[in-house]
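Practice set, problem 2.
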Amino acid sequence: KDLTSQVSDGRVFVDVPNGLWCVNVIKTTRKGTGRKNYINTIDHDAVRYFIDQIYEPHYAHYKDDFGKTFAGFFSDEPEIGSFGGEYGHDANIGKFNMKMPWSQTLHERLKELWGSEFAENLMALWTTPDRNSNENKSGLCRMQFADIAARLYGENFCEQIGDWCRQHGVEYIGHVIEDGGMHAHMGIGAGHYFHALWGQDMAGIDVVLQQIRPGLDDCKFHSVGGNLGYHGELYHYALAKLAASLAHMDSKKKGRALCEVFGAYGWAEGLKLMKWLLDHMLVNGINYFVPHAFSMKDFPDPDCPPHFYARGMNPQFPYFKNLMEYCNRVSHLISNGVHIPAVAVVYPAEQEWAGEYLPVEAIGKQLLRNQIDYEILPTDVLLTMTVVEGKLKWENEQVPVLILSGSRCITKMLADWLCKAAEKGLKIVVVGQKPLAMDNNGILREWTSQIKDNLTICEQEDLADILYSFGVDEIKTKKYEPWLRYYHYKHQNGEFWLFMNQSETEEINTSLCFEDGMMDSHKIDKECSCWYQAWENTVEPCEWDENNDLSLQLVPGEMKVLYMGDCTPYAKILAEKQEIMKLKKATDSQTGKIEIVPDAWKLWIKDTGTEKYVLQEREKTGDFCRKHPYFCGVMRYETTVFLPKIKSCELNLGEVYETAHVLVNEKEAGVRVALPYSFEIGKLLHEGENRIIVEVVNTLANRQRDFFSMTMPIEPSGLIGAVTLDYF
């Protein structure tokens, strides 16, 4: 009951009925406990003032450079900000006593929506739904409030700035805070990932503070400093998909999905981990990157290392360009074309606001571990989509199956749409709790009985088998491969398949059976396929068996790119390499193997920041930092080998930590920053004596014990195991 009209001279006069009652006071204030001096991002005039004070002066000063030197503007982690980080990652609507964002427009829209029940419905924002009732009034009010607030953020902040940028010939990009579920929360979040970024010209995310750690995808673990806890599921199985999905559905994004990457991992993050993070993002559809960060401050700068240059103190910086060249090559392959997903998942923000729900990452884990690629679709966009011949279509993509997170309820509008879509042949799969439909009065009703066919309700562990029975899997492995990820992308003249082994310890040795692509891809033709080795920028022949199954071997952390299309430009190269493979198999008895024993090496070391190499008399191979724990720099291994006349030779360094630069007879043989540390050096060798130099570079973590590296392992340094030459 609203008692506002019964307040007089600072007192409220009311006849209290029998029973136990609670009196609540709701007020608006400019003196909350949230972020001080922070813009109200859901208020149009506040954001307009921000534009006038920041953006307009930039334009006045740099007008002639806009669209040229000035490409655009980047917003880094803007938020609704009504109560800042007070509730951290738990700032989901419905928490007891939580502050809520407010603006005049929000007030007006709620008054129009709720009418005479305005005050009572506001009170429902802080109450818990009655689990045993067929009414969810508090869930309805929470969902309506959060929806309006999130849309106001999108309209007033992101779209207003984005429109200003586009009107002035530049682009607007950036990201909000997504971690810990904040992509659908308020506070330090922006309420709804898709509403928040719709006005930008790219879809963006970031990965910082060790949020993604190889192998920690299915457990909780300590974050930087050990004070907070992360859960790996969101970061490994849904974060990148948020950006990639938005990039694929909003035409003004032009398929561009961006990630701010590498930041605040600490000096323990070297190029090896950076490549793993890049590959993880690439295989999930991210194709634009903002590397974090260069610092021109005096070394050491404590602000969120690693820094790529570090005033010349980062010994791996000379090889950072190799990583960026690789990144550009693969990003190019998954741009300006069409992603081919297998299924789509409904973004469950509204379900979360209303009460119990299954997070999207729980579904994503089941899909990606079983090589079923997916997109995430927000409800309001989904409701505008059409179903044709049993397939859900948008932009250039289509899927035959739509997956819905289990929850207590969904809106009646969504339930009605799902019923009509099922009638048109779209398969609907509900994972977990079967939701009820909630009407505009908060009444919950059963709706699934209206669907005669094409509805399946299953548990998480059964999802993959259900989808396999629908035939949505594009590839099949000969056994369960939970670490194998793939991404299928189609261009006008061919298709690319990215395959990554996300394990740090286990190899993948399997064969792939291909089904027809979801976009009427051509039939598999083994004569029109090859492996593209993006790190070396070379092509390699594929190995197919009599069943047209493709052999796939991936060492831990490795990514390969399969190309299917016109291989004519590479025919000569592929034929030569195919011939070498045949000769090697045919002359197996004539092959040779040399193991370079530790005593064969001479080791010279050069401390970072110095130019002088110092000969080490005792150490040969193994973890150099076990006896020299503070060493950071270059370990230069030199040896000579005697060889007969050969056709081909592979140098395998085995276990290396972590960047390896190889020279053979004073000529460049290549750089590797991660497994496999193998180099084809046959063309650099000659009969007789050959000189081999291996320069191994470690990270600054040994010398610079920074705060951010506290919860990161510091790996060994140098050539650890056996080094071999395989030749024929």
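Problem 2, part (b): a different protein.
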Amino acid sequence: MTNNAHLKRLVLIKPFIPRLLIGLFVMIVTVAIQLIYPKAIAHFIDTLNVQRATGWYAGFAGIMMAVLTIHTLATALRYYYFESTGLMVVAGIRNKLHNVLLKQEIGFYDRHNIGELTNRLSADVEVLQDTLTMGLAISLRSLCVCIGGVIMLLLTSPLLSVILLIFLPVSIVLGKWVGKKVRVRSKSIQECQANAGKVAHENFSNIKLVHAFNRHDKAQSSYKSSIDKALEVAKAHTRFMALFRGAFSFLTYFVLLVTLWIGATQILKGALTVGELTSFVIYAAMVATSAGAVSDFWSDWMRTIGATDRIFEIIESVEESNSPSETKEGYLQGRIEFKGVNFSYPERPEETALKDFSLIINSGEKVALIGSSGAGKSTIASLLLGFYRPQQGELLFDGESTQKLHRQYIRNSIAIVEQDPALFEGSILENIAYGANTDSVEFDDICRAAKLAYADDFIKDFPHGYETLVGERGVQLSGGQKQRITIARALLRDPKILILDEATSALDSQSEQKVQQALDNLMAGRTTLMIAHRFSTIAKADRIVVLERGQIVQQGSHEELQRESAGPYYHLMGQQSITKHTA
């Protein structure tokens, strides 16, 4: 980790410099008072020995009370400004990291577990708060006290100061050595904790499966194993820090003991007063404590660097989009062309998902993609949505290559209805409104979309109507209800291109009928790509494209393909279509 990388962390506090300057000013006030205090005690002790009159006590006490009041107010202000700035810095980092994660390529999520990412967003970012602001503030104050204390020590007794001038470099070198060790150990701790979060996320995400197969013990065992590993790493780090703190404590008190011994000999010689020795000991304690605090901060800083390395790797590795920086106005017309496309998923480069794939879909045409699992159907949908880019060949919309079109412009004209409807934990109203291209949506427009999706009736039957909460991933709704809400969401978007990814395959016949009616409304006048197996869906297509291993092996209307009894379409659809025709 270079010094430049360290400074990148400090850049995070740049927007808050005015607040930190206020905190720094009141901190200087507290440090100045803290440095004056031992001198005042020395004056009090030495005057007490010389002056027996009690009249000066009241004046001295009054001055000290005023100074302590100022110190109290300055301490409170220092704490508020540095602590609140820390909260603001952490909030800013969380927003920045979340924004970066949202903009990552889909391939990034293929490589990373969601539990790990949410752990980075919460626990890892939290590590920065104390170190970057309060820790930094305490360190700066300690550094000022340390420097000021050394000056006061030299002014009080140069001879005694020699001892501390030997001690300080030793403590700083020791702190730096410990800091390097701490950074490595902290990174391991954070990785173990992230792994534990990943295991917990997987268990909770698949909770129905855990219950259905009675695998509670296995789920708990997996989590306990990850927690135990994190605990062992953390305990090893704690043992290391315990040894360091013990050794540092011994060194500190040993130095103070030597100081007192030499100071006592100086008093006997008349070279030092009792008050001066008392103030020297207080200053020495201040310097030792402050040096320890600076050393601790360095250890904490290294711990923070190690713990947050992954955060900044993510923030600094945002992939620049290959799309132009300017977004075209308006919307697509709906013509799609794949021209000699070759594509492999980044995580499986050895497997070709699409091979020399060429296909033209005219504006307003309904095309069904069918084929066995792994034939490339969903890959085509992913390329259309810009989740990935072809390694070779071109994908064109309205005759223009995606290399010349911004993804936002393309996606504004596309809507998708999936087999497993994706709903957010919120109201039905919010989930339908999510499909709009703008943040401002009229309630009447939402109702109109819901009616076309045959969702309005069942929505109004709920006690809270459109404000009904759907639960996580729509768990409070039936499959058909969720599907119709996603169709309403797509209708509200009014897309030029529609992707139906097995939109009815998981529904019973009664639900499918309602959903099919809603889909008919949705497909009207739109370029539609249907990934389907059911004859009821495929029959609505103007053209059927049969895929095998990423290549087109057959295409045409249902009647044309059905006549080719030796063809793959007949084999794939055989029983469904035969039953349909003989019924």
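Answer key, part (b): Strands lie at 336-343, 354-361, 366-371, 392-397, 400-401, 414-418, 497-501, 527-531, 543-548, 551-556. Residues 319-323, 578-583 have pLDDT under 50 and may be disordered.
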